[in-house]
Amino acid sequence: MSILIIFNRMSYDGTDVTWNGLRLAEKLLDAEQEVRIFLMNDAVDLARDASKPPEGYDHNLSDMLKSIIARGVIVKVCGTCMARCGIYKNQPYFEGAKKSTMNELADWVVKTDKVITF
Prior knowledge:
By secondary structure, the chain is α/β, with parallel strands linked by helices. It has four helices and five strands, in the order βαβαβαβαβ. The longest helix is centred in the N-terminal third of the chain and has 14 residues, at about 15-30. The radius of gyration is 13 Å and the shape is globular. About 30% of the residues are buried.
């Protein structure tokens, strides 16, 4: 089964929404599901090395995403959002996170069995 997870929220927004989404991705991979991830809006900071956990937060979400990429997951990040969204506007995405478009996201949605948003 193919599963697309779309992240929209700022990584460190005072909740565990993004952390839980990444944990779900890891568990879906453990269950041998095909997982793809698309980051948009303020979630694009998740794919930037400049994004670090705030003091006292016990998880590095960017490192979690890098670990997921290392497991073979394709991660695409909104190209338009690079300049418009996140705290670290215009900073590049790290290796393994591919700059993408809304057309590519639309294609993924059409070809995916399940779409989950966070």
